[in-house]
Write a structure and sequence with these properties.
single chain, about 600 residues, alpha/beta, Glutamine Phosphoribosylpyrophosphate, subunit 1, domain 1, Rossmann fold, seven-stranded antiparallel sheet, 27 strands, about 25% strand, globular
Length: about 600
């Protein structure tokens, strides 16, 4: 969950690394530090707090490494900040991950003086304990580690950065003879979009060039840089005060881009779908594995695929999936969903599914990520870099890609005739314009946030395929405003949560007009109203009756039932944003949260 950045080249390394650390703030952190190469060794700088408050001078150098720390082992103190150095001070390292056997390794180094409470410091001491050349000592130390790690190491007078990875992402940027190495591409996107993805159990030696090899087999790896389509403008806030608000406003344009890329003459095209039509017809069960917001997207996908493609689906928390010996076979399709493509639990679920012979189609937003590389097929979300910790545009991109996959599967399996496929595509093409209309009439959402921002609790209720949107709305409010909120299927309110209703409890209902659930939701609203709760309704434009029952109504345009979640989620995203902003919360970097959870 920490951020790592290193640079070796002809420019000012300390300035580039500090800038890279700022670009990695969205991963979540409580402290930061740098190791800057000097003629005599290193200049180590460590700070508790935010990078924006740093106003010190940094040495000009051509090699440096840096780190943003999110505490796991040891308190948030300067001594626990990275970089850490070896016993004699000649080697400095930064690390993302968890070293599970650090106590045993520490016990073996009885004469060493440890200066921190972290698991990380053992790595520097191990490297320094070998009487070997730097590269060999690094390899031998890495082989002793158990757990997950992305490690950068530098040594006095070596003029190299050594990198190792297992279970924690690392990507190398290349521009002429300038080399960048980081946890995420946005850290160096302003300098290059040519990247090399390091695989598990690999070491990279970054000197005058790059050498990569497997540290278990010593087998050398030849891997050329690939060009990713992201650009630096996508990683800037532009006119918006926060990335979260910018990313909410990007959603219409992103959906339009996905439509233009994946629909050609009313035909759905998936370039990276490595399943034949016969294999799609044989699928007898789909299992989603995901976490957080992606798990909510999977719930919507379950509704879509069961209704339009007639395939039984299950949605599993990735963190629990592999601990109960799931029943899978060659006719099971497993769909991991992860914005980053590096979520540790989702990756573990994918590997479990592969071992059991299931087919894997992943939905990821980061090209070249580990989940993408290890899947049989990958459907890219094409949302561009998402910087705000609270996911918004990646969520709606997930819904759109799931919808297109559903319609495609329905056609291949003979469930959806050509006429219905055409109508479903037509409905989707209208969505960007409908999203623009919600965003352009946002005053009522701002007014609602102003009115209720000081509440301590909230309930979010929905039925059918809007129940996952109630979950997502509650999650967004919790993430960015720190207000306790819970999402439920509306009918479940009677089975416990109704005890919480009083005149201080806002209850957010998704009460869009449809023939399936509307009347039932109205009955639930009546129940809350009779107990004095505050009713805030997301309703279909033109529904005047809802005003009689609600304290506040936010209208969205009408669309097909199956696509309603794409519109209903927008007001919830905006409400969470404006409430958090009103409370002066750190919207893009909520406390205790990280963008990409890369440790279990």
């Amino acid at each position: 969950m920490c951020g790592i950045i290193g640079y070796k080249g002809s420019d000012n390394a300390s300035a580039i690394v500090l800038d890279g650390l700022k670009k990695l703030e969205y991963r979540g952190y409580d402290s930061f530090g740098l190791a800057i190469q000097t003629s005599n060794g290193f200049e180590i700088k460590k700070y508790v707090g935010k990078i924006g408050k740093f106003n010190g001078n940094l040495l000009n150098s051509n090699l440096a490494i840096g780190h943003t720390r999110w505490a796991t082992h040891g308190a948030v103190t300067e001594k626990n900040c990275h970089p850490h150095v070896c016993n004699h001070g000649e080697i400095a390292i930064v690390h993302n991950g968890i070293i599970e056997n650090y106590r045993e390794l520490k016990d073996d180094l009885k004469n060493h003086i440890f200066r921190s409470d972290t698991d990380t410091e053992i790595i520097a001491h191990l490297i320094g304990n070998f009487d070997l050349p730097f590269e060999e000592a690094f390899k031998e130390a890495i082989k002793k580690l158990e757990g997950t790690f992305a490690v950068l190491a530098v040594k006095k007078n070596s003029n190299k950065i050594l990198v190792a990875r297992r279970g924690s992402p690392i990507v190398i940027g290349v521009k002429d003879k300038n080399y960048f190495v980081a946890s995420d591409v946005p850290a160096f996107l302003g300098y290059t979009n040519k990247v090399i993805f390091l695989e598990d159990d690999e070491i990279a030696e970054i000197g005058d060039d790059i050498k990569i090899y497997n540290f278990n087999t010593n087998k050398k790896v030849k891997r050329n840089p690939v060009e990713i389509s992201w650009n630096v403008e996508q990683a800037k806030k532009d006119k918006f005060p926060h990335f979260m608000l910018k990313e909410i406003h990007e959603q219409g344009e992103i959906i339009k881009k996905i439509i233009n890329k994946k629909i050609v003459e009313d035909k759905i095209i998936f370039n990276n779908l490595n399943l034949t039509e016969e294999e799609i017809k044989k699928i007898n069960r789909i299992v989603f594995v995901a976490c957080g917001t992606s798990w909510h997207a999977a719930l919507v996908g379950e509704f879509m695929l069961e209704e339009l493609a007639d395939i039984p689906c299950e949605v599993e928390y990735a963190s629990e999936f592999r601990y109960r010996d799931p029943i899978l076979n060659e006719n099971t399709l497993v769909i991991p969903i992860s914005q980053s493509g590096e979520t540790a639990d989702t990756l573990a679920g994918l590997r479990e599914a592969k071992q059991k012979g299931a087919k894997i189609i992943s939905l990821v937003n980061v090209p070249g990520s580990t989940i993408a590389r290890e899947s049989d097929s990958v459907l890219h979300l094409d949302a561009g870099p998402e910087i705000g910790v609270a996911s918004t545009k990646a969520f709606t991109s997930q819904l759109v890609v799931l919808y297109l996959m559903t319609v495609y599967f329905g056609k291949v399996r003979g469930v959806l005739p050509d006429g219905q496929v055409k109508n479903r595509i037509r409905d989707l093409k209208l969505i960007p314009g409908l999203i623009y209309s919600i965003l352009n009439n946002g005053k009522e959402i701002i007014d609602c946030a102003e009115k209720y921002y000081d509440k301590k609790n909230a309930l979010y209720l929905g039925r059918g395929n809007n129940y996952p949107i109630a979950l997502e709305g509650a999650l967004k409010l919790k993430e960015v405003s720190y207000i306790h909120a819970e999402g439920y299927p509306a009918a479940e309110m009677k089975h416990g949560p109704i005890a919480l209703i009083d005149k201080e409890m806002p209850v957010f209902f998704i009460a869009t007009k449809d023939t399936r659930t509307y009347k039932k939701v109205i009955s639930n609203i009546e129940e809350v109203k009779s107990r004095g709760g505050i009713i805030i309704s997301i309703a279909t434009l033109g529904d005047d009756e809802i005003k009689r029952l609600s304290d506040y109504v936010i209208y969205i345009p009408e669309t097909s039932y199956i696509l309603t979640p794409l519109l209903a989620v927008i007001p919830f995203q905006l409400l969470a944003y404006y409430i958090a902003d009103k409370k002066e919360c750190d919207v893009d970097k909520p406390r205790n949260l990280a963008k990409s959870v890369t440790v279990e």
